[in-house]
Design brief:
alpha/beta, TIM Barrel, four-stranded parallel beta sheet, 7 helices, globular, EC 3.1.3.15, Histidinol-phosphatase
């Protein structure tokens, strides 16, 4: 079972990867399931129908997903290619404390299969431009909350293509999550280009087995489905 649960398309402000090309590429690569998870970052980006002026960076609009077009195209792709690959509907929420109400409203607006909660900004400042250190006690409390709430964590395989010295999250965090009772794991390439799609998923499954995990998850209507590694 090969699934990529972190896939971006031209509906993300940082990708120009055509949705239909993603699907045909995924079929060619032998993926059995994908989930589109394009970016929404309230606080630093506007919705297209917000009435605000859309800003541009490097020629690309700093805007959230065009939701009606996005949902309609996913439905169209499911009708065209559903016999060859399972196509799930998701988004990646770049969440901040003060934007939670906006994301709650968006979440209830459409029938999603899967949502990634990411931290891209703090106080409307891009995360990677400020020194916000992580410490183990805080991470442990976060993971306990994740587990109590019946949610899971993602292994993002982009760490391989970036040449990082460890996985994302690190092996130590993956060990801690399991030790605390965590079971829900998704695997995603965080693809923005054709050469990213589906990469290092097999290697990640092997890593998870080495860490004594037995299953990974896909989702349908926000309910995890467990698959043996």
């Amino acid at each position: 079972m090969l699934a990529d649960y972190h896939v971006h398309t031209e509906y993300s402000d940082d990708s120009t990867y055509c949705m239909e090309h993603v699907i045909t590429d995924a079929i060619r690569l032998g993926l059995e399931e994908i989930c589109f998870t394009d970016h929404v970052d309230y606080g630093v980006k506007w919705d297209w129908d917000s009435g605000q002026e859309i800003k541009y960076r490097n020629g690309e609009p700093l805007a959230n997903v065009d939701y009606p077009r996005y949902m309609e195209e996913i439905k169209k792709m499911q009708a065209l290619y559903g016999s060859k690959i399972r196509i799930r509907t998701g988004l990646e929420f770049g969440i901040q404390t003060h934007t939670i109400p906006m994301f709650r409203s968006l979440y209830h607006r459409y029938p999603f299969d899967f949502i990634i909660l990411s931290i891209h900004q703090v106080n409307d400042q891009e995360f990677w431009t400020y020194p916000f250190p992580n410490v183990k006690p805080l991470i442990e409390e976060i993971l306990k909350t994740v587990i109590t709430d019946g949610k899971g964590i993602e292994v993002n395989t982009s760490s391989y293509r970036y040449g990082l010295s460890d996985t994302t999250p690190s092996r130590e965090i993956l060990k801690l999550y399991k030790a605390l009772g965590g079971k829900i794991i998704t695997i995603g390439s965080d693809s923005h280009r054709p050469e990213h799609l589906g990469t290092y998923i097999k290697e990640t499954k092997e890593l998870l087995k080495e860490l004594d995990y037995t299953h990974f998850c896909t989702y349908e209507r926000m309910v995890p489905i467990f698959h043996p590694l």
